[in-house]
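Title: Request for sanity check on Hemerythrin domain-containing protein prediction

Description:
We are preparing a figure and want to confirm that the structure record we downloaded matches what your pipeline produces today. Could someone re-run it with the sequence below and paste the raw structure tokens into this thread? We only need the token string, no images.
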Amino acid sequence: MIVVHTAFRREFRLAPGLVRAVEDGDTRRAGTICAHLEFLTSVLHLHHTGEDRLLWPKLLERVPEELAPIVHLMEAQHERVAAVLEDIERVRAQWRSTARPAERDELARLLDELYVGLCEHLDAEEERLLPIAARNVTEEEWLQLGEEGVKGLPKPELPLVLGMMQYEGDPEVVAEIVSHTPWLIRSVVPMLSRRAFRKHALAVHGTATP
């Protein structure tokens, strides 16, 4: 989970600057950035959906008293992030077609707000939730969470998602994640992932090392 969080922190930290750098009326560049944002938010949604469906119910059943102090915090943080994401989607659609400064600046402001709220949530998960989960969720159940996440991704996006995790993630952890995926993914995706991230980063960030 920390490997995934690291990728989210990096990409959403860089997102507002990408938007602000687009010149007035440059709809082609705006389209590139909007496609990148759409990809990021879809992966984030999938991540949160998997937690809500496969992690939280198990913990609430097994250790309700231990989890109680943070349930409302996590729910409130999810709601805040979801609300900002809705606003981002609305403004992003407007800006994509016009690349006007007003929508650009509003979108960048919302992305700044999202980054702050998302980091608060990820920090709280790592500091307060993961220690509880480590004691109460089996290795098999953790693997199921990862497998469900992989299944939910469109197959063409798998190399890019893995490449984003590889870029700053612990190599041993990434290798462990891949080792439990189906054979076809395990044998093909790692060969393509670094290339996929490099190509994507060059198009979006202008560098292979953002």
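Thanks, this matches our download. The CA atoms of residues 46 and 152 lie 7 Å apart.
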